[in-house]
Specification:
alpha+beta; FAD/NAD(P)-binding domain; 23 strands; binds flavin-adenine dinucleotide; FAD-binding domain-containing protein
């Protein structure tokens, strides 16, 4: 146990995926946590969320009953030809669990959120259950007294405040980050298809593939269909991307009235007829606003920090948004655990910033590239022998190895040692083992 460890009273603004995860990590580390959520969760997003091994590993570390989230365990990534639907690039996940210790889960967001909420608030499990206060929208924080003011007039003081309040974060502004965001040239409509309905309509049962499937993405165009099976395969969640001149949804929020199916089909006259047939019976058609945020300069100020989309909102094309929020939560849990926290909150948050900002912003920039080139997407980025494989910079491409061979404990130890001015003698650099050869040709620790 680190000398100086003490129990903290932590306030988390935002009870989404990241907020619930950090509450779990912190209660397990021995702290008291209160989550303040602006909504009452009635409008939770009905779509899939993928959780690759780098996210799944923390769910297991936190003893979460992952089966409660009713995931589909993915067996492959498939990229299909836009017009014929024939597979053109595949990445098998057959040895994924064996290599990385954890599976690649595809959850339905509401089930994943409920699973995390049970772990954060439940009586069972390590530490004291976190408290959840809904209908508490954070309005302001006094950084000197660490006091949060909510729109409903409630005021609360905490030792540590975590802004997990999503892409439109209020906490981000309060700590002095005012992003200039711009609408992406790409737009997205999401729809759900019940597998049973597709089968009854005589269409292909894509759930049998247990795959994350993509149509298009090779042509440097914005058009792309992404299919994720969830709820044990009963539900097919479709993300349908197209150029902004085909439909502009930048100012339409998720949760408004469903869009008509004709609007969903309009940009796709040449799309493979099987998947087109699925989209034609799609329900709950909702726009997903895509805004580009360039990386922010920092994640912390005094005793406040940002977590998840509040700190590094990203395009969805690496399916890593939730995983990055989970990793942030894991880093906070480790840094404030009895083994590492010596009572100095500001120093722990400075290390959090050093550990999380480079990794999350690297994924953020790789997600922007994968928006128009699927070869940049983790997994497909390993298929470099395919004739049409082309990436912007082979040495900089993000690979599955970099995501999953990462050891956060070693990264934290290295950066904590630097902060304290003590030496670090481990065989890791930024959490990656020295000597590891990545498929992009980079060897960790070798001089360039
Ligand atoms: C439709 C959709 C599909 C997605 N699919 C994937 C996927 O397949 N894979 C993947 O990895 N990621 C996916 N993502 C992204 C992923 O959901 C986010 O990256 C992830 O949820 C980040 O977690 P978060 O806690 O930072 O934000 P959120 O989960 O968005 O939670 C933020 C919470 O803060 C609350 N809040 C906001 N403002 C305030 C305030 N002022 N005061 C108090 N509370 C506030 C919000 O109500 C919300 O509950 C998807 C996102 C969407 C919208």
């Amino acid at each position: 146990m680190a000398v100086g460890w003490r129990k903290l009273n932590v306030g988390v603004t935002g009870g989404g995926i990241g907020g619930m995860c950090v509450a779990i990590a912190l209660r397990r580390a021995g702290h008291e946590v209160t989550i303040y959520e602006r909504s009452d969760f009635a409008g939770e997003v009905g779509a899939s969320v993928s959780c690759a091994a780098n996210g799944t590993r923390w769910l297991h570390e936190w003893d979460i009953d992952v089966a409660k989230g009713d995931p589909v365990v993915l067996k492959r990534l498939i990229n299909r030809d836009w017009k014929t639907g024939e597979p053109i690039s595949e990445y098998s996940l057959d040895d994924y669990e064996q290599r990385w210790g954890y599976v690649y889960n595809m959850f339905h967001r509401q089930y994943m959120h409920a699973m995390l909420k049970d772990s954060a608030l439940g009586e069972e499990g390590k530490g004291s259950p976190a408290k959840l206060l809904v209908n508490h929208r954070c309005k302001d924080i006094d950084l000197d007294t660490n006091t949060i003011t909510f729109e409903n007039g409630v005021i609360a003081q905490h030792d540590l405040i975590i802004g997990a309040d999503g892409i439109g974060s209020a906490v981000r502004n309060i700590i002095g980050i005012h992003p200039t965001r711009r609408p992406a040239d790409q737009q997205c409509l999401h729809c759900n298809v019940m597998t049973d309905d597709a089968v009854k309509a005589g269409l292909v049962d894509y759930s049998l593939n247990e795959a994350l499937e993509y149509w298009g993405g090779q042509e440097g165009k914005w058009d792309k269909i992404v299919l994720s099976p969830c709820n044990g395969g009963k539900l097919l969640s479709y993300y349908c991307f197209f150029p902004r001149d085909q439909g502009d949804y930048v100012n339409q929020a998720w949760g408004a009235e469903d869009r008509p199916v004709e609007e969903l089909l309009k940009p796709y006259p040449e799309l493979d007829r099987q998947v087109f047939g699925h989209l034609a019976i799609g329900k709950e058609i909702q726009p997903w606003r895509l805004w580009i945020h360039d990386p922010y300069p920092y994640l912390n100020k005094q005793r406040v920090c940002l977590l998840g989309d509040a700190g590094h909102p990203m395009m969805p094309h690496q399916s890593q948004g939730a995983c990055m929020a989970i990793e942030d939560a894991a880093a906070i849990g480790i840094l404030f655990s009895p083994a590492y926290f010596d009572g100095n909150i500001e120093q722990s948050l400075a290390v959090y910033n050093k550990v999380r900002l480079p990794r999350a912003t690297r994924v953020q920039s790789a997600a922007a590239k994968a928006a128009y080139n699927i070869n940049e997407r983790i997994g497909f980025s390993n298929n470099k022998d395919l004739p049409f494989y082309k990436v912007e910079d082979q040495k900089n491409v993000l690979t599955i190895e970099e995501m999953n061979a990462y050891d956060m404990y070693r990264d934290i130890e290295e950066k904590l040692a630097a902060a304290k001015g003590s030496g670090y003698a481990g065989n890791f650099i930024c959490g990656l083992p020295i000597g590891l050869e990545l498929p992009n040709g980079i060897v960790i620790g070798a001089s360039a």
